Amino acid sequence: MGCGAARLHPSYRVSRSGNAMYTRCPHCQTVFELRADQLKAGHGQVRCPDCGRDFDALERLFDGREEALAAAGGSGDALQIRNPRPLSPGWGVAAPGGGREQSEALEATAAPGIPPARDTVEIPAVLLEDFQAPRPRTGLRLLQGLVLLLLLFALLGQGIYLQRERLYTLAEWQPWLERFCAYTGCELPLRRAPEQWAIQQRQIQAHPHREGALEVELDLVNQAGFTQAWPLVGIFFTDLTGRRQAGRWFGPEDYLSPAASTVIPGVPAGERLQLRLTLADPGTELVSYQFDFR
Known about the structure:
Immunoglobulin-like; 294 residues; alpha+beta; single chain
């Protein structure tokens, strides 16, 4: 008999209830007799006791013995039906319907020179974990997903809180940040609209008390419809080509007293801001000047 032929021993039978089913090992072509409880215990997965390989019995399931033997390509006299081991922790003690009487009957009816098949399979307990079907963990996964979602929201909120001053300069972020701080209790800086500062009057002249310095008087009006933060005022000198060659930025700490900046947080809508600034004289080579706001 070639290595690809299936085998059947007619003297081997397994005690069971209900109709028998048959399957065939795709590796060694051995035909097995199965019970429904065996298929259920292993979820259809069985291990061939002849070649030791695993396969899905449901893919090669036959209702009749002759049909299984015909599919295996052999005859009843040349084939051997064996009891497979399902991959389940329920198998490792004794097969249902088996017992001492059945084992003795198998030993008595086995053909000479052929070891009797056993319904018991001794599997170490540590290996049973590998045979167990994975248990659904829907609740655990749902909890993990919820915790991850909360962590993401916390991280997002922390980022918005740390960057709120910069984000508040963007018009599309302003209503969202106002709601965010109303809920969390954080403080938002005053808004800035540099293009809404209008120059009502300006004058640049030599400083009356400091040599090599200029004195700048500037009268501004907040034309925005809201209170603006104290502006950053830039004064720059340009050459004949219009390029900026000298200048500097002035912040609230340069033109306000510490008490004024604490008491008055910003400039209300429509209010005037009068500034007197001092800067170094760039010389006669620079012929024009510009104002800029931030």
